[in-house]
Amino acid sequence: YFDPKQLARCGGKGKEDNFDFHFLGKILRLLKNFIAKMAVPCMELPSGAKMPVLGLGTWKSKPGEVAEAVKAAIDAGYRHIDCAFVYGNENEVGAGLKAKFDEGVIKREDIFITSKLWNTFHHPDDVKGAVKKSLEGLGVDYLDLYLIHWPMAYKRGPEMFPKDEEGKFIAADVPFTDTWKALEACVDAGMLKNIGLSNFNSQQVQAVIDIAKVKPAILQVECHPYLNQKQLLQFTKEKGMVFTAYSPLGSPDRPWAKPEDPSIMEDPKLKPIADKYGKSVAQVLLRWGVQRGTIVIPKSVTPARIQQNIQVFDFELTPEEMAAIDGFNIPYRACHLNWVNFMSDWPFHIPF
């Protein structure tokens, strides 16, 4: 990393013109990147890739906010960003990434980037084009991970949420196993390093595994103490897959939330645990997630909360506390998409 001649120049003789501040900045950035890599543990995917166990979620991050959130996250030590085309903000995520690439804070290989295939692009002929759109928006030439966002296929076309005259969503008859084969071709083309699934149930995951040349590396689903997904987590471990928990704080800002809905962040049983460790309830929830062997991707656009969310590796919950939090399971699913439960591939027809 270091040129000995440049290091010698940094010694100087106490004179300002003998001190290379630009090179010192480079050293400090490299040191900061090294510390960031050490701060957040990683899980190894079947390909051998290392995926940080905590990342920045970008769902519901508004235009005008997400680029700054990405920059704040990278400065705080995040090296994992979770995106999706349907979030409508990949261009801004890309702008945040580019700023940090240009500053020399990180290189492309230092950060793990995930995106997802939306439901209108399930047809095999549409998959490669959808991947390219995300690559262009994010300003990168490959993705570390790409997921099928949901097992249900929607009608092909430019409308992300196609509906009929009565306001009912329009499904498409595209088996997700065909979609998977098209993703495998994108892996072969070097566009994607790893591929996986999101919001699939155990039977649907098994159906993909049964036909796959490239095995799914990840299953990403909603998971928090009110929906602890214990059976699905065990299933993924048995299949050699890594489990990612989205909405690890319960997604209280989801667009369809109702005042009477359960809120894990407001559960009074968590406050004494948080107080014991001098942590917030959010930090306890994230610690519970990583300590049980899952990857967590909390969303925030507030720099202070982004910083707080990553500070969960300096304490450990006791086995009794872990068991107590496991016992909060209701189960309550916040991201249910009940408005498409008539579709055959809606994943919540079975317990897990």
Terminal Cα span: 48 Å
The topology string of helices and strands comes to HHEEEHEHEHEHEHEHEHHEHH
Helix content: 25-40%
Average per-residue pLDDT, rounded, comes to: 92
- Major sheet: 8 strands, parallel
> Which structural class do the helices and strands define?
alpha/beta
Query: What topology, given as strand order, has the largest sheet?
Result: 3-4-5-6-7-8-9-10
How much β-strand is present in the residues? 5-15%
- Record field, number of beta strands: 10
Given the C-alpha coordinates, what overall shape results?
globular
Q: What's the alpha carbon Rg, rounded to whole Å?
A: 22 Å
Low-confidence stretches: 1-16
SS summary, helix count? 12
Question: What is this structure, in a nutshell?
Answer:
With 352 residues, this protein is α/β, with parallel strands linked by helices. It has helices at residues 4-11, 21-39, 66-76, 90-103, 124-138, 176-188, 202-211, 230-238, 271-277, 281-291, 303-309, 319-326; strands spanning 42-44, 50-52, 56-57, 80-82, 112-117, 145-148, 195-198, 218-222, 242-246, 295-296.
Overview of the structural elements:
With 352 residues, the protein is of the alpha/beta class. It contains 12 helices and 10 strands. The strands form 2 sheets. The chain has an 8-stranded parallel beta sheet with strand order 3-4-5-6-7-8-9-10. Strands 1-2 form a two-stranded antiparallel ribbon. Strand 8, helix 8 (230-238) and strand 9 form a beta-alpha-beta unit. The radius of gyration is 22 Å and the shape is globular. Mean pLDDT is 92; it is low at 1-16.
